[in-house]
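Bench notes, afternoon.
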Amino acid sequence: MVYTRASSADQREDLERQVKRLLDYCTAKGYKVVAVLKDIASGLKTNRRNLLRLSELVAGRKVDMVVITYKDRLTRFGFEYLEHLFKKFGVRIEVVFGDEPKDAYQEPVEDLIAIVTSFAGRLYG
């Protein structure tokens, strides 16, 4: 299973590049790709159509591996939770390129966003 995501429609070329890179990777590794799921939406959105479809396939034990380019293509926050849940269904997430490269400003900004998100979750339940 290959899963890709781009944040907006103007990044459609990036989405297709992700698909090509992942399919090439899977071919080189000898993996059988049963489906390619693509979403165009923020990584913060939890109701992405194909992310939900992926969850159904995992819960239905229809796949045994999900291949993604970077962790944040699957989700901006909580990757470890999804990874843990998928493992419970015998599904491994393979991240081809690890973490997306960050500049000196991006990491502190992401940390700040994570803190604000955590507090907002506590405030609004």
